[in-house]
Design goal:
The relative contact order is 0.13. The termini are far apart. It contains 12 helices and 4 strands; from the N terminus they run ααααααββααααββαα. The C terminus is likely disordered. The protein has one domain: Outer membrane efflux proteins (OEP), CATH 1.20.1600.10. β3 and β4 form a beta hairpin. 61% of the residues lie in helices and 7% in strands. The chain has a 4-stranded antiparallel sheet with strand order 1-2-3-4, with no helix packed on it. The protein is an alpha+beta fold.
Length: 483
């Protein structure tokens, strides 16, 4: 009996020491704030230069010199809180794999019998029984469950990589939007300043009886319109910067200088994408979400296999050693088995079969959408290329029209409102070209996302349309200072 008690004590000790310990992790204010305000220093540059991703290239970052759209993509992968949360799924999948490989615990069965009456008690002893029971049903489907969990871990890792890629593309597009918004704001500001100077010039000329009140009204109207456009452009730039900070995972009040990959701020005027067949070829083996879905499908295949194996009758084996009250010793073996008359795991098999079909349909749908997105992006890029070329070709003609109106207005052959209208039309055409270039940059990002691969950024060619067209005055005295 003493040996039996000692054995039980040893088992209890092993059970207690083998259990995991609980460690609290409070949601303290300091911990949350440190997570939401990551440092922008050398440590971040080291992290971005050592980034490991199937598509993204590691890039060092120096915020003092500004960041490029490509660098913004890498920074977002490192800092964005949404990705930090998504990476927690990997730990969950790995825990499920660990659980799938664990065998069911055996059961320790102990019985004690003390005779208390009902017959002759002389010569009787206390009886006891010690044994183990083990449910071996889990062994039948364990291999399939482990294979399913392994495939799920790989699927989750690829899915996280796809989320990182999408977040990186959002950050790159946000950086390009900042470049476009900044260029547009500068252009609108220059137009508004020039028209303000012109308005002050015309007002001085009116005071000297060199210009009429009609000239003054036209100059003021042109300035007010340009000022309203500038205020909207400044609002759009602030919004673009807030969206960039959000994509990067930085506080809203962070101010970041954005430059193009060639060190300039101008956006490209043209982008020639690869052929659609080139981007579609090998798409299923390149896009991380499709690879994740394929592994998820393989995981579901094994899950369904485990459900089919689980329909076999449940079997429980037992082995025990017993001593009865007459001091007769025995070694016992037994088993219990379910009789599968009603429950043959039909519900689980049907559910897993339906899930497998859903994943199959989702995989084919995702491929269809990816191919369509590639074709649509290429077609849109070609259309915007043509629009930019047409708009830039119209700029010299509009400039000549402004020059003609100026000369005719000075000679009194045309009213001053027509001249100012031509100047505004020229400025608006320049802004429209900037907007088209922004669309072109966004479409390149969309094509890059749909194809699941990095596409080199075209060089930004400096063109006349990148510069603000000069606003020319028709006054005859020097412009006054801006009030």
């Amino acid at each position: 009996m003493r040996r039996l008690v000692a054995a039980d004590s040893l088992l209890l000790f092993l059970f207690a020491t083998g259990c995991a310990q609980y460690h609290e992790k409070p949601l303290s204010h300091d911990v949350i704030e440190s997570r939401l305000n990551p440092p922008i220093d050398q440590e971040l540059s080291v992290a971005t230069s050592k980034l490991k991703h199937p598509i993204l290239r590691p890039l060092p970052v120096d915020f003092t010199r500004g960041i490029t759209p490509s660098q913004a993509a890498v920074v977002a992968v490192v800092l964005n809180p949404m990705l930090v949360s998504a990476r927690s799924q990997r730990a969950t999948a790995e825990a499920q794999l660990l659980q799938a490989g664990i065998l069911p615990n055996p059961q320790l069965v102990y019985e004690f019998a003390h005779p208390i009456g009902g017959g002759v008690l002389a010569g009787t002893n206390n009886g006891f029984s010690v044994g183990f029971d083990w449910d071996v049903q889990e062994l039948i489907s364990q291999g399939a469950r482990v294979d399913a969990a392994k495939a799920e871990v790989k699927s989750v890792q690829l899915d996280i990589g796809w989320q990182e890629w999408q977040t990186a593309e959002v950050a790159e597009q946000a950086a390009l939007d900042v470049l476009a918004a900044e260029s547009q704001r500068q252009a609108d500001d220059d137009v508004a300043r020039r028209l303000l100077d012109n308005f002050n010039l015309v007002r001085t000329a009116v005071d000297q009886h060199q210009k009429t009140l009609l000239d003054l009204a036209g100059a003021e109207s042109a300035y007010r319109d340009a000022s309203a456009i500038f205020l909207q452009a400044r609002r759009d730039e602030n919004h673009s910067r807030l969206m960039l900070n959000r994509a990067l995972g930085l506080p809203p009040d962070t101010r970041i200088r954005v430059v193009n990959d060639n060190g300039q701020t101008a956006l490209p005027s043209r982008y020639d994408p690869p052929a659609a067949n080139t981007l579609i070829d090998g798409l299923e083996d390149r896009r991380l979400d499709l690879l994740a879905l394929k592994l998820g499908y393989e995981s579901q295949e094994q899950t369904l296999r485990a459900a089919v194996l689980a329909q076999f009758p449940k079997l429980n084996l037992g082995l025990s050693r017993a001593t009865d009250t007459t001091n007769v010793h025995s070694l016992n073996f037994g088993f219990t088995m379910d009789i599968p008359i009603f429950d043959r795991n039909q519900g689980a098999i049907a559910a897993e079969t339906a899930t497998r079909q859903r994943l199959f349909d989702e995989y084919t749908q995702r491929i269809f959408e990816a191919r369509s997105d590639i074709a649509l992006a290429i077609d849109s890029i070609q259309a915007v290329n043509a629009q930019i070329a047409d708009a830039e070709a119209a700029m010299p003609g509009l400039q000549r029209l402004v020059d003609t109106y100026k000369s005719s207005s000075q000679q009194g052959n045309v009213d001053v409102l027509s001249y100012y209208g031509a100047q505004i039309q020229l400025a608006q055409k320049s802004v429209a070209i900037l907007q088209l270039k922004q669309q072109l940059a966004d479409l390149r990002i969309a094509l890059q996302t749909a194809s699941g691969q990095f596409l080199p950024e075209p060089e930004a060619a400096a063109t006349e349309s990148n510069q603000t067209p000069p606003i020319q005055s028709i006054g005859s005295v020097p412009p006054s200072t801006r009030p």
